[in-house]
Amino acid sequence: MTTATAGGAAAPGTPPSATSRKGKGALGTRPWAAACFLLPALVLLGALVVYPIGYTVWRSLYGALGDDFVGLDNFREMFSDDGTLTALKNNLIWVVVAPAVSTALGLIYAVLTERVRWGTAFKLIVFMPMAISMLAAGIIFRLVYEQDPDRGVANAVWVGVHDTFAEASAYPGAHPLPTADLAESGGGSFTTRTAVRPGDAAMLPLVGVKAGTIPEDAPDAKAAETAAGKITGTVWLDFVKGGGGRPNVIDPGEKALSGITIEAVKGGTVVATAEAGEDGRYALPAGKAEGAHLRLPASNFQEQYNGVDWLGPSLVTPAIIGSYVWMWAGFAMVLIAAGLAGVPRELLEAARVDGATEWQVFRKVTVPLLAPVLAVVLVTLMINVLKIFDLVYIIAPGATQHDANVLALELYLRSFGTSADQGVGSAIAVLLLLLVVPVMIVNVRRIRREGRR
Known about the structure:
By secondary structure, the protein is an alpha+beta fold. It has 15 helices and 8 strands. It starts with 16 loop residues before the first helix and ends with a helix.
């Protein structure tokens, strides 16, 4: 083995790093040069992250104007305020539900789209909401959740499905005059005070029919003619447009209420039924209906089904979470699909050869192999939902904004609302930071474990 020369030159067996890299880092870069390159990033990090965090912690110890030290009073006030407690509860719901549902849907989409020819097009459609800002998505879903079925897509679909299985009432809100023979008999129905007899015409006038319910070209009502063996009558709108007319009498121009159901009731039992024709006239068999009272059931007058109050106090948070899932399920799908592409197909085929069903392959092979990717998606979405603000602020109406409140929104309202108190707002910001930090620590440790493999 050769040795160093008299002039101090390195021997052939000496590693080059011992001489050529003296005073340099692991990558062959001098520390001062690396520091020069990192300095701009460190300055920005300090100005945009470290300083705001430090100032927020300091500001949380002072009052509303920032000139009087109050210690932990802002934190005490924060935890005694109903708005903050509601926001904390809703944030817990968000963290538990939204990431889990988004990740589960992303996993299902990623696995199923591998088996269809048009999977790429489907992935593109599902991922497209990610190109929309939270503001635009909030406006879209504010319209989707409108109560009026003529404007809100969700209620339009819901009412359509409901009306498919349940008939809508003919004349919602209609009722008799106080002077009419009809009187309310409970449950929204109306029953005649007197029993009917053959040869009599039982006139059933109603008022209170909403404008637009009866078409302009609807036929006028006609007085019923007596007939042997039958009990007849007319159901009509006892109202003349422009005023005038006599109560309980069919005047010219008064419209028939066709389609109304009439029941003959004896001893609480329906013995015969009829339906008013286009001119409002009906007929009941005298043999069954004689001595009965005529009843107009509540199904004629019930208010039309108007859908679900999606943005009401009980459903506003689940509704907003639904809009979030619509946006972020595509993000989860793309990441999981990328992880799925790296899963060895030999393992899946070996499981199938061993007799495993597709569900068993998915549950016991695919999901465990995708566990690192699923953890990345889940933790990323958890951090994201802890800071959710835009969707809640835009979608929740003023009447139910308190019920949908989250910490980021409460921070904004307490800091910049009508009764601004930036001391309490800073305390809420510190609480939000403390909630995010554990999730970030878990994520960093996971990344380090993956790097050591």
